[in-house]
Amino acid sequence: MQGFEYPAEPHVRRHGPAGYADYGSYRDWLRDEFIFRCVYCLHREQWYGRPGTFDIEHFVPVSVDPLGKCEYTNLLYACRTCNAAKTNVLAVPDPCSVAFGDCLRIERDGEVAPLNADGKKLRDVLCLNSPFNVSYRSRWMRTLETLRDCDPQLFEEFMGFPENLPDLRRKHEPANTKPDGVEDCYFALRERGELPTTY
Length: 199
Ligand SMILES: [Zn+2]
Prior knowledge:
The protein is of the alpha+beta class. The protein has helices at residues 27-33, 80-86, 117-125, 131-150, 152-159, 186-191, and strands at residues 17-18, 54-58, 75-79, 104-106, 112-114, 175-176.
């Protein structure tokens, strides 16, 4: 169902900020880049978006490549649970190189089914089928299905964008290899009335 399908294509980065001295400065860029959800488990800010719930994930761990610490192309947006599970593991595929939709499918009972070897790595490293994760996912799926039928407004709140969209046009980043991307940040889309109700 909506919200529980992995991307059918590898992620193509829309933004290219560079030059920040601390990786935390990339947070809003990454939120927008990865549509306010965890790249690994699809958990959304809108589902549990309290501050501190999401981390900046170093795809190649800093312990392996310290130079990648503040390199935007090495940074992903992940929930704290997935970030903690991945830790220093190098063996998972990069969502910017591999379509996770080719690797994983979420079943109606909340289980994640791996579709290939990369999917098995993702499932195992990120503990996607831990009893907690499966029951949590299943509960959300049933909740959203019920809301879709019985309370469409609340369904849209959970499946829509967060209120606090960052306006990337006002970030004054030190450098940017994809400066045009800021015009299509979700804040700008909302301003132009082009933000979808749900995604
Ligand atoms: Zn996650």
